[in-house]
Design brief:
Elements: H1 3-13, E1 15-18, H2 20-29, E2 34-38, H3 43-56, E3 60-63, H4 67-73, E4 82-87
Parallel strand pairs: 2-3
Antiparallel strand pairs: 1-4, 2-4
Family: Belongs to the eukaryotic ribosomal protein eL30 family.
Keywords: Ribonucleoprotein, Ribosomal protein
Protein name: Large ribosomal subunit protein eL30
């Protein structure tokens, strides 16, 4: 499965949350099916995401690329360190959590 294509299709056709602060809030509330983190996510944010996702039983996938690359894949002109897939849309991105 092409992860990058899956992320892009999910951003275009589904419902996603971009950004670490909003992502942490969504994980705390259990709003989402999958968390995707960039490889260079700051350690404190990474620790928070992993801890809260364990509590809410949300799978976390570490994207093998930087936040700049993740932002570019999402079609955004800024860095994206964390995104939450709430609804995948036409994407098959949720297959990576298995």
């Amino acid at each position: 499965m092409d992860i990058e294509r899956g992320i892009r299709v999910a951003v275009d056709t589904g419902k996603v949350i971009l950004g670490s602060n909003k992502a942490i809030q969504a994980i705390k509330l259990g709003n989402g099916e999958l968390a995707i983190m960039a490889e260079n996510t700051p350690k404190n944010v990474k620790a928070d995401i992993e801890a809260y996702s364990k509590l809410s039983e949300m799978p976390v996938y570490t994207f093998e690329g930087s936040s700049v690359e993740l932002g570019s894949i999402c079609g955004k002109p800024f860095t994206v360190s964390v995104l939450i897939i709430q609804e995948p849309g036409d994407s098959n991105i949720l297959e990576i959590k298995e």
